[in-house]
Amino acid sequence: MNPTDNSPLTLAEAKAQFVHTWGVSGASWGVSKTLAQVHALLLVSAVALSTEDLMEQLKISRGNASMTVRELLDWGLIYKELRPGERREYFVAEKDMLQVTRCIIRARKRRELDQMKRSLDQLAALPGDPANAEYRAFHSALTDIQQLATVSDKLLNRLMHAEKSWFWDKFIKLFM
Amino acid sequence: MNPTDNSPLTLAEAKAQFVHTWGVSGASWGVSKTLAQVHALLLVSAVALSTEDLMEQLKISRGNASMTVRELLDWGLIYKELRPGERREYFVAEKDMLQVTRCIIRARKRRELDQMKRSLDQLAALPGDPANAEYRAFHSALTDIQQLATVSDKLLNRLMHAEKSWFWDKFIKLFM
DNA sequence: CACAATTTTCAATAATTATTGAAAATTGTG
DNA sequence: CACAATTTTCAATAATTATTGAAAATTGTG
């Protein structure tokens, strides 16, 4: 069955393990397991895969495959590959990991951080009596969190818009 | 009822809104809503709170409060405050947001990134035929992901062990 | 060590989230 | 425009995760 049976894993097994691990990781970061697994499968695939392929390889339903693929397109993590004369759509993953990082940062920043900042701005503006210890504690916690949010925001913006060379240069030099 | 009724929100309402927002954010990052809410409540509280206080203010059960508090202690995000002559335990949050960031990075890195790196190392070592396009695609995706994981790991280590002044200095100067 | 105060555990249940799959919609082609 | 291929939608259901609450365990004190 396996032409290199003395090797610990076949390529298919290794891919399956990667898909599994990526799925578990995704799940613990609030991403659906299927989304992460479809992404993983496309990341390590040499060829574009159709919805049919995904359904078969991950044993998921047509509906699930369709919705998951659409969401990954939204994130910008995969692309459609249209083949002339074929109705069926194929998908390939963005393989450049800096680009992948950017897509994830952009999506999550917009959904979480930007919304959080809006809420913080509103709450930090709350007027109150500075002689009231409860008020002082609230206000000071809020401005600290705001400051962190602001710095994180700027940092993430920089990362998102960084040139590839800038990113690796600055970061590797600074941190390694 | 509210002594400053012309103000848009009372302090209690503002706290409640913060607790709610923090809870929603936590939930979308794979943390239980209750965990995030207990953390939020303690972050903006001027005084230490008991399990009883948490149960009452967040309307959660004793069991839930107990488990959540224990998990936050594990993360290092809150501390016990023992009062002489009292059996009951009180809790205060770590208020320094750099410290909070460190705790979160440390916990998540250990749980997710370190485990992912172990899996990647194993899979990237898979021998195979370089003439096989499927194998080449798999191997190259894996080494790219490994490189990202390694750089992320070093970056996070730096952040985790950074002095407060170093962190703000370097980062604010670099990114603002 | 008995007791009361408090915390922890964990099986049962509730709440939430993910998934299915059939029906409807869309798309391209003769 | 009819038809077949394919995708999308979404109500129903399954699977997962969070929460409860009562019983057991722990802790400190007389």
Walk me through the structure.
The structure is a homodimer of 176-residue chains. With 176 residues, the first copy, chain A, is mainly α. Chain A folds into two domains: 11-93, Orthogonal Bundle (Arc Repressor Mutant, subunit A); 97-175. Chain A contains seven helices and three strands. A three-stranded antiparallel β-sheet of chain A has the order 1-3-2. In chain A, α1 (11-28) packs antiparallel against α2, α3 packs across α4 (62-75) and α5 (97-124) runs antiparallel to α6 (133-161). The longest helix of chain A is centred in the last third of the chain and has 29 residues, at 133-161. Chain A is elongated, with a radius of gyration of 22 Å. The mean pLDDT of chain A is 90. At the A-B interface, α1, α5, α6 and α7 of A face α1, α5, α6 and α7 of B. Chain A binds a DNA duplex (30 and 30 nucleotides) through residues 32-34, 51-52, 60-64, 66-67, 70, 87-89.
